Amino acid sequence: MTSLSTLPSLLYEPLVRAALLEDLGRAGDLTTDAVVPADVVATMVLAARQEGAIAGLDVAASAFTIIDPRVEIRRERPDGSIVAAGDVIATVHGPARALLTAERTALNFLCHLSGIATATSAVVQAVRGHKAQIVCTRKTTPGLRALEKYAVRAGGGANHRFGLDDAVLIKDNHIAIAGDIRTAIARARAGAGHMVRIEVEVDSLEQLEVALAEGVDAVLLDNMSVGQLKQAVAMVGGRALTEASGRVTPRTAPAVAATGVDLISIGWLTHSAPILDIGLDSDAQGHQQAA
Questions:
Q1: Are 88 and 150 in contact (CB under 8 A)?
Q2: Nearest to 97 by CA among 17, 34, 33
Q3: Which Pfam families does the UniProt record give (predicted)?
Q4: 211 with 240, same domain?
Q5: How many structural domains is the chain composed of?
Q6: Containing domain of residue 149, as a range?
């Protein structure tokens, strides 16, 4: 995969702080504060319990350091790594209270984002050998879009638009209200400005012909059969980017990619990917009283 850029902490620290506040509530960690002496230092490991791709390690690490800046994290496997069950992802060392208090928040982020990366990686591997890129959509958890789209990149995928403001995507309801595809495209071109690309969703070859005649930048081929996709790619002939969409899975992705489309967009990568099981395991030999 290409180099994975680090996610700026400004994008995730407010989310982690909000999650910690939700967990700590009005009285803090009653269990840990009662059971664990304040001067105990511990070493624990973040370990994978199943095979998958890692994403969100910096996000998880921030949960520990926000609780106590003295916590130290040694990263063993960076984001984008493929790990096996039992692999140590990171070692966490510091005040035991901080490790236990931040544990669930850290794992919630790390397991969720790694699950997205793992699901993405599976589809990316399925289409290896074809030119099609796997991309996500705006079907994200409210508030977590930047993190979830980062997880897709960690899994080897790419991102579709981040929001309503970075590209024009004319969909079926826009066309229905505008009256027809030509009118919708003309209005978009007049209102969006020369720097904004225009994509149109089509669900038939007839609609595709109209969109191409208007000179759009990309076409979203929605819920078309493999046969229709092949015809659509031939009709486009490189004049626009082609994007296939509609319930694509690792099993069906190879046939879709073989049609020659440029992009395959998949919503479930972010809205329904199962977590990757990761645990925070105690090192029984790593507990000590502070000097």
A1: no
A2: 33
A3: QRPTase_C, QRPTase_N
A4: yes
A5: 2
A6: 125-271
